[in-house]
Design a protein that fits this description.
single chain, 363 residues, alpha+beta, Glucose Permease (Domain IIA), two-stranded antiparallel ribbon, 12 strands, 51% helix, rod-shaped
Length: 363
């Protein structure tokens, strides 16, 4: 006996066998592991590429700073030589007047040529008036040279600080993990395919066995309207309200008809249709729902554990064995709860089956 629980949010498809279920689970786990390994590999590859790009940029910057530092050093050296030459000339020639310019001194590359151009005391005198400016430019050139040399040292250290070896090792490790995960996934796929093939063969064997049992047991319990007795048993409870609840938790309105039968007795598809639901369904215990089309469906509750022979999406024919009588869910003993739904609403199964040539509980 039972009350009617709410329908499950999604159809629960029973796995054909424990072997195929384990194989499917192992395949899913292997696929997840492969995906994680692929993600780790991609991340390591991008990390290495980014580090190499940063290092290349650092090398380029190092070369730029080197050129600037060399130029500044040459400039500072030239300025210092020019100042030293001027000081020597002043000391040797004394003061005088001249027309030599500051740029002529600072651009001079040879002390001999510079002294040649400072041929008179007058010219030296003109330059001594700019001595302070010359010293300022020398200091500025030296300071710039020192700054760029420091930048060059920093840039050089930066190019040597990139952990390329570490990144390359990480990528190699990720490649190995990905290879191993890919091999494991391929093996799991082969095992799953073999398990499914084996399960399919077993299903064929079970279907043939069920058909043989049906031919010897069901016999005249098929109607000429294409309907069959859900199970062979006596009527133990009918459709409608129940003043006395058989068990706590069941609904006060009984949404089906109960047929008492021996545990393990065959349960037959009442008519041709497609399996819409299988699995656990609250107080119904193990449950199967068949969609017969045109808004008509039949349900079978309290089925024995491990006895269901169909899965969601399977097509069944009238009288096909789909499971066995049990006492799962809210049940006081082995029986089959038969339910008929029209457009999703439960109706009294007894007149429904009677109209289709089947007397429920007739033996």
């Amino acid at each position: 006996m039972s009350g009617r629980p709410s329908a499950p949010s999604t159809a629960e498809a029973a796995t054909p066998s424990r072997i195929s279920a384990r194989a499917a689970s192992a395949l899913a786990a292997a696929e997840s592991a492969r995906d994680r390994a692929q993600a780790a590999h991609d991340a390591a590859r991008l990390d290495l590429a980014g580090t190499m790009a940063d290092q290349n940029a650092a090398v380029t910057r190092l070369e730029e700073v080197r050129v600037l530092a060399d130029t500044a050093s040459n400039r500072a050296a030239s300025s210092s030589r020019a100042l030293a030459t001027l000081v020597r000339a002043v000391m040797q020639q004394g003061s005088g007047s001249g027309t030599a310019t500051l740029d002529a001194l600072l651009n001079e590359q040879s002390s001999t040529e510079l002294l040649g151009r400072l041929s008179t005391a007058d010219r030296i005198a003109a330059l001594t008036g700019n001595m302070s400016e010359i010293r300022t430019r020398v200091d500025r050139d030296r300071e710039r040279a020192a700054t760029l040399q420091a930048e060059f040292a920093t840039a050089q250290a930066a190019t040597e600080s990139f952990p390329l070896a570490e990144k390359q090792e990480a990528l190699a490790t990720a490649e190995l993990s990905l290879s191993q995960a890919t091999d494991a996934f391929a093996l799991a796929s082969e095992i799953a395919r073999a398990a499914l093939d084996e399960s399919a063969e077993a299903s064929v064997d079970r279907t043939a066995e069920a058909a043989n049992r049906l031919a010897g047991t069901l016999g005249a319990r098929l109607s000429d309207q294409g309907w069959a007795t859900p199970t062979v048993g006596r009527l133990s409870d009918g459709y409608g309200p129940r003043p006395d609840l058989p068990l706590p938790g069941v609904e006060p309105f009984h949404a089906g008809t109960d047929l008492a039968a021996a545990c393990g007795s065959a349960v037959y598809a009442a008519s041709t249709g497609v399996i819409a639901q299988t699995g656990q369904l609250g107080t119904y215990g193990n449950w199967v729902l068949i969609d017969h089309g045109d808004g008509v469906a039949t349900g079978y509750a309290h089925l024995a554990d491990g006895a269901t022979l169909v899965s969601v999406g399977d097509s069944v024919t009238v009288g096909q064995v789909i499971s066995a009588v049990g006492s799962t869910g809210a049940s006081t003993g082995c029986h089959l709860h038969v339910e008929v739904r029209i457009d999703g609403a439960a109706v009294d199964p007894h007149p429904f089956f009677t109209d289709r040539g089947i007397a429920l509980g007739a033996g």
